[in-house]
Amino acid sequence: MAPTVAIIGAGFGGLCMGIRLQMAGITSYTIYEKAGGIGGTWRDNTYPGAACDVPSHLYSFSFEQRRDWTRRYPAQPEILAYLEHCADKYGVRPHLRLNTEVTSAVFDEAVNRWRVTTADGDERLFDVVVSGVGQLNRPRLPDIPGMSSFEGTSFHSARWEHGHDLTGRRVAVIGNGSSAAQFIPRIAPIADHLDVFQRTPNWVIPKVDGEYGPRERLAFQYVPLLQAANRERIFQFVENVIYPVLVDGWSKRLVTNRAQEHLKQQVQDPALRAKLTPAYPIGCKRIVIDNDFYPALTRPNVDLVTDPITRIVPHGIETAGGTVREADTIIFATGFRTTDFLAPIEIVGRQGHLLHERWKDGAEAYLGIAMPYFPNLFLLYGPNTNLGHNSIIYMIESQVRYIMGCLPLLSAHGPMEVRQATMDAWRRALDRAMAGTVWEASCHSWYKNAAGRVTNNWPRPAAVYRRISRAPRREAYDFG
Fold it and tell me: 276 near 201, Cβ under 8 Å?
């Protein structure tokens, strides 16, 4: 008898899990989604210019490779449309429960099943729980004194207020990461004045973007090998050229020089250029890939502010020294609560173990997928599975394949739980690999928790992760 499976989240991870179950003939699954539609981060992030920094042909499932992308780097509407297409084609929509937030999952040892409860009070039993909530789903707002006193309009970039027209307004953007780099060039031309508050500069490299012409799209569509070859070319480039940047490899100087040249070419003012030059090694924070960010900062109606923010006042933002910069709109481009994995869902495992207590010093999981004391609970895009160089979809597919390999084992032998010795060995191996990466540098990034532990990123090539997660090892688990 096929196991019953609860999937939490209907983004890339949750949909991939549902599709693979459907393809295997397992229809006893439910996908819980707290929002009113599928897509995850690509449903939520609709700010002007929202796009992916992974090339289009690598940013799709291997079993459903889209061949008619209109651009070399996909924009948010196309990515969301692709996910909608996948949900329709593979028949997962009947298994969706939209507008249904999971509040808790408790392992009931009396029946060896998970009791999943939702915000509307519904409670159901499942053999398996798969979390597909990911790392980029809960916007993070900064803790700045006076935020509630602001009399204008304020919102996070992941909750963009499209009904609020920015034309002719004095706008303040707090943050300068990848999202800000995409929307600032779109709003700068229409704002009366734009202040960009920067705490730390980012390394920025050019984006080799552009539209695919009609002939190229036809060629990719009707000569599948051509599209497959392009996908493989991109994969090998990021694995063999971009990944070495993260481990002090051969291409670090090459990419650093390219970023420095990009800054010099686009910003002529030496004072502004100095403010935009990072003092940490490239790759320590997420590298921004963009062509329009620097030119937007050189506009006469745009100021880059590097003075620390002391507080928000009713009509603007006050910086160190007492200067108040007036604003009627504040946009927080301050990222996500990336290290609070699975929060705020209450996860209670065997013997009453609380997941948030187990993770109080930093989230961790064997292969980023499974944990001791939590039988038959699997994670997609879990701790230490984010990438700084490649497509996360490749990682998600690796994890889904692994979980699919677990299902026959737990059906045959009972609940499967990672051994503590396995987890300890995994942690030691991960720490050794992490020690050689640029993320161990002193820069602040969303890859680390408050204690400075890198909880989000995978420290080796993506191909290595796929190899070691090819199939579950029975000796790594206890059963029954």
Answer: yes
